[in-house]
Write a structure and sequence with these properties.
- By secondary structure, this protein is α+β, with helices and mostly antiparallel strands.
- It has a domain at about 50-60 and about 140-390.
- Helix content is about 15%, strand content about 25%.
- It has helices at about 1-20, 140-155, 160-170, 255-260, 295-300, 310-315, 385-390, and strands spanning about 50-60, 110, 135, 175-185, 190, 195-200, 215-220, 225, 225-230, 235, 235-240, 245-250, 250-255, 270-280, 280-295, 335-355.
- The N and C termini lie far apart (about 80 Å).
């Protein structure tokens, strides 16, 4: 009897002590990087081919009215951020921006059942955004930036930047060549190398970069020692899976933003990555993402803008950098990053053995580029201009 009483007292004491403990917090999901390859990226076979393409179409998405419409770009901070949605408060580290769903690369999205609203992290990535239980993770402020630039430009030049950008690439005003090396299979290849080369057209009118096999010449500053096969910008990781090429670049990359947004984009971008359905003659459903440090933008425009510039620019920050989103008033102090994304298409091209310092005489572009409101035929009558929308 004494033994039973002792056991009962011990069990009661243990249960009381257990009830007095504070409830345990659910585990915090890790940061999952879909671009991290297990076991490295493999080795080149030494037997693969080199495929050469050029950007022929670039498409900036419309600004979604609710911030939730599918858009191009990637989950650059590995979070699926919410912005005061129903009973869910702002996700920490969201910079007060709602992430959009990706219709192109599902691993930028988070399944709701695996998602932690306290942190914006998820135990798993990858879901179809057409499902209600799928939360978007895309960071992309380029649609809003394009809207702002159109509003500003309409005060003096009536430019339409989305049309402007499409025609820049379609007519050879901006040229970027993509070379995919060591390709053994266009369906699945665990290791390929990708180089990006700023170039100029080596073909004449009609200026249409969507024509198969157009020839380009590398800019001297884009290659090493004048060798077009030794590009300055080389991928850090690249592979093909299910016919889709995925590429990431470390460091900073020069992309021809200055050509389409003069005076505002005259610096390299960071953490560039893209994915595209790759075939022998073209690349479709391209998805491009990168970030621009807002601090760099402010430091560039502040000398030639009024005091409101830092406030306006900080309004596009959607990714923290070193714990900061928006700097203090006056444009000083740390600031976060502005993520950008757009859709694109590639067309098969050739790259000359020579290099150039600038546009070649007699080659495209053959005339200055100006896109004004009401400019007929821009969206409907040019090959390759609207093809990117269909491929998106």
């Amino acid at each position: 009897m004494e033994v039973r009483r002792a056991i009962g007292v011990a069990v009661l004491a243990w249960s009381v002590a257990g009830c007095s403990q504070p409830p345990t917090q659910p585990p915090t999901p890790p940061l999952i990087d879909p671009w991290a390859r297990e076991g490295g990226v493999g080795d080149a076979s030494g037997r693969g081919r080199t495929l050469t393409f050029a950007f022929s179409t670039v498409t900036i998405d419309p600004t979604p009215p609710d911030g939730l419409a599918p858009t191009a770009g990637f989950n650059m901070d590995l979070l699926c951020s919410a912005n005061s949605e129903g009973d869910i408060p702002d996700t920490p580290n969201s910079c007060d921006k709602h992430d959009a769903p990706s219709p192109l690369d599902f691993d930028s999205n988070c399944p709701v059942e695996q998602w932690d609203w306290r942190t914006g992290r998820s135990f798993a990535l990858g879901c179809d955004p057409s499902r209600q239980s799928c939360r978007g993770g895309v960071d992309n402020q380029l649609p809003g930036i394009a809207d702002g630039l159109e509003v500003l430009s309409n005060q003096w030049a009536m430019l339409e930047y989305r049309r402007f950008v499409r025609r820049m690439f379609a007519q050879g005003h901006a040229a970027m060549v993509v070379q995919v090396h060591d390709v053994d299979s266009l369906e699945d290849d665990s290791f390929v190398r990708v180089s990006l080369v700023r170039a100029v057209p080596d073909f004449g009118a009609p200026c249409d970069s969507s024509v198969d096999g157009q020839r380009y010449v590398a800019l001297r500053r884009a290659v090493i020692d004048g060798d077009p096969q030794r590009a300055v910008v080389q991928s850090s990781v690249a592979w093909i899976q299910g016919g889709r090429l995925r590429v990431r670049f470390d460091g900073t990359v020069e992309f021809p933003f200055a050509d389409w947004l003069p005076g505002l984009w005259e610096w390299p971008i960071e953490r560039l990555q893209f994915a595209v359905d790759l075939r022998e003659e073209r690349g479709a459903r391209g998805n491009f993402g990168a970030v621009i440090p807002a601090r760099r933008v402010v430091d560039h425009v502040l000398p030639m803008a009024d005091w409101n510039a830092p406030v306006i620019i900080s309004g596009f920050v959607d990714i923290e950098r070193m714990g900061a989103c928006r700097g203090p008033s006056g444009g000083r102090g740390p600031m976060g990053d502005i993520a950008i994304g757009f859709g694109f298409e590639l067309t098969r091209a050739t790259l000359s053995d020579s290099v150039a310092d600038g546009p070649r005489a007699g080659a495209c572009p053959s005339e200055p580029l100006v896109i004004a409101q009401g400019d007929g035929g821009v969206d409907g009558g040019e090959a390759g201009v609207d093809g990117g929308d269909a491929g998106r």
